[in-house]
From TrEMBL:
Segments crossing the lipid bilayer: 12-31, 249-269
UniProt main location, coarse: membrane
Matching InterPro entries: CHASE_dom (IPR006189), CHASE_sf (IPR042240), HATPase_C_sf (IPR036890), HATPase_dom (IPR003594), His_kinase_dom (IPR005467), HisK_dim/P_dom (IPR003661), HisK_dim/P_sf (IPR036097), Sensor_HK_Regulatory (IPR050736)
Catalytic activity from the UniProt record: ATP + protein L-histidine = ADP + protein N-phospho-L-histidine
Domain spans labelled Histidine kinase: 297-517
Domain of life: Bacteria
EC code(s) of this entry: 2.7.13.3
Name used for this protein in its record: histidine kinase
Cellular localization per UniProt: Membrane
Keyword set, alphabetical order: Kinase, Membrane, Phosphoprotein, Transferase, Transmembrane, Transmembrane helix, Two-component regulatory system
Lineage: Bacteria, Pseudomonadati, Pseudomonadota, Gammaproteobacteria, Pseudomonadales
Species for this entry: Halopseudomonas sabulinigri
Length: 520
């Protein structure tokens, strides 16, 4: 069972690894595109947030600048009632204003609205070191400055916009506009259209930006930052998309779900194929067992009595029981030829089985090729005469030697020669010749006939077991179709090659064997 599952698990694991690699590569490409798109989107949305913040801050700043102009036109606080009336009219346009203080000579002399801000009235900036340092910087630079958020004396957190007032070129005093920081900056946290963003405001302090408002940023996530230059200070707005990209998550889930379905499908199909393979192997093993039993039966039940029959017929032909009548001699000779043919068929069956199973034992020796060929040709006279055929033998290399099993080499030649004789027309010519090929490293032995050639449709089956070019019951020549498969098996086990060429003028089977001994 473990052996059965191991290749299936290896296949599924390989598909899983390749699939995961392709999915992650695809998601990476999608992520790159998505990040580029998200970056552009964050920039656009950041510009929208910055514009909204600047608009709200600008209202308070413009109110302070307007008050400075009004004070300069009124020559200071000579008529406080007019100043308060003007402030009352302007205050209706700024809903996050806490108060506006007017401080001639750096002391708050008027504060609007008074109610709730009484604690700041009369404040003298030199008495408040933290604020006085800022006022001194404003006096030196003659430029307004925005500070905060800072804790206020009257409570809460405020943004303080301080503007110096000059009259006739001389410093007159200070206008301080206090804005409610939570009311003004709270839009960063509460605006519905920005709830999918982490927004953070940072202030430049020295060479670093320090957060003073907004949410925590998630490390490792993409973000965009943009500067907001303000009087006397520089803010930085940082934006970040909240949570994981839902679309990318859906892509990942979908692709891995598809990979899982693919693994299930492949697993099912592969398991079915392996199961069929196991069944096929079991069937083949059973077939092999039956075949072995059949061959064993042939060997013991047919070959043994057939050998005894041949021995008996030989004794009859040899005159063991006296001289036989002519007709009896003809019948005994016919029986012996058929018994010899049957014994050859049985031997062929046993040989092809041994070749396929790799059990055929060979005794390879360096042998003279000419001697091997002449020994095989000497036994053909009767067959040649019966078919009225002629034989030509050409071997200009009498010193040629090959390393073969002599008995099996003769069996190979017998198969090729008997085929050449069998398929040659009456009066035809069978040619056996030897040549040297492959730069002199191999001997080529050819057996040629003048028959009709091998049909094209059968040429690829020539060396298959039990194959016959004409398998009909009316075929001209007999045979089991085992001679050439046995020939190929024997030649290859002796280190040689076998092949053929064919045409309508005849067929040539050739053997290639390496030259043996000193010939190399």
């Amino acid at each position: 069972m473990q052996t059965y599952l191991r290749p299936l698990l290896r296949t599924l694991l390989l598909i899983l690894l390749l699939g995961a690699l392709l999915i992650e590569l695809l998601l990476w490409q999608i992520g790159v595109s998505a990040r580029s798109q998200s970056s552009q989107e964050l920039l656009l949305r950041g510009a929208e947030v910055r514009s909204a913040l600047e608009t709200r801050l600008r209202d308070g700043i413009y109110l302070s600048r307007g008050l400075v102009s009004f004070l300069q036109s009124q020559r200071g606080l000579q008529e406080p009632e007019k100043v308060e009336a003007w402030l009352a009219s302007m205050n209706q346009e700024v809903d996050y204003l806490i108060n506006i203080g007017i401080a001639p000579d750096n002391r708050i002399a008027l504060i609007f609205p008074r109610e709730g801000n009484e604690a700041a009235l009369g404040l003298y900036y030199p008495d408040v070191p933290k604020q006085w340092a800022t006022v001194q910087q404003i006096m030196r630079s003659q430029q307004p400055a925005l500070a905060g958020p800072l804790p206020l004396v009257q409570g809460g957190m405020g943004l303080i916009y301080r503007t110096p007032v000059y009259m006739d070129g001389a410093y007159w005093g200070l206008v301080s506009t206090v804005m409610d920081a939570p009311a003004l900056l709270g839009m960063v946290d509460s605006e519905p259209r920005w709830q999918d963003l982490n927004l953070q405001l940072q202030r430049l302090e020295g060479e670093q930006y320090t957060r003073f408002w907004g949410a925590d940023l998630q490390p490792g996530r993409m973000q965009q930052a943009m500067l907001i230059p303000l009087p006397g200070v520089t803010w930085r707005l940082v934006l970040q998309q909240r949570g994981e990209d839902a679309q990318l998550l859906l892509y990942r889930l979908g692709l891995y779900a598809a990979l899982l379905l693919l693994l299930l499908a492949v697993g099912y199909l592969r398991a079915s194929k392996l199961r069929q393979q196991r069944e096929h192997e079991a069937l083949r093993a059973e077939t092999e067992r039956i075949k072995n039993e059949f061959i064993s039966t042939i060997n013991h039940e047919l070959r043994t009595p057939l050998t005894s029959i041949l021995g008996t017929l030989g004794l009859l032909q040899g005159g063991a029981v006296g001289t036989l009548p002519t007709e009896a001699q003809r019948m005994v000779a016919l029986a012996r030829r058929n018994a010899d043919h049957l014994l050859k068929l049985i031997s062929d069956l046993l040989d092809i089985d041994k070749i396929i199973a790799g059990r055929l034992q060979l005794e390879l020796q360096d042998m003279p090729l000419d001697e091997l060929l002449r020994s095989a040709l000497q036994e053909l006279d009767g067959m040649l005469a019966q078919r009225e055929l002629r034989l030509e033998y050409h071997n200009p290399f009498e010193q040629a030697r090959v390393r073969v099993d002599a008995t099996r080499f003769k069996q190979v030649l017998d198969n090729l020669l008997s085929n050449a004789i069998k398929f040659s027309p009456a009066g035809g010519l069978v040619i056996v010749q030897v040549s040297r090929v492959k730069a002199g490293t191999h001997w080529r032995i050819e057996v040629s006939d003048q028959g009709e050639g091998i049909p094209p449709a059968f040429q690829h089956k020539v060396f298959e077991r039990f194959a016959q070019a004409d398998s009909s019951s009316q075929r001209k020549t007999g045979g089991t179709g085992l001679g050439l498969p046995i020939t190929r098996g024997l030649v290859e086990q002796m280190g040689g090659e076998v092949g053929f060429t064919t045409s309508a003028a005849g067929t040539c089977f050739y053997l290639l064997f390496p030259a043996a001994g000193a010939e190399l």
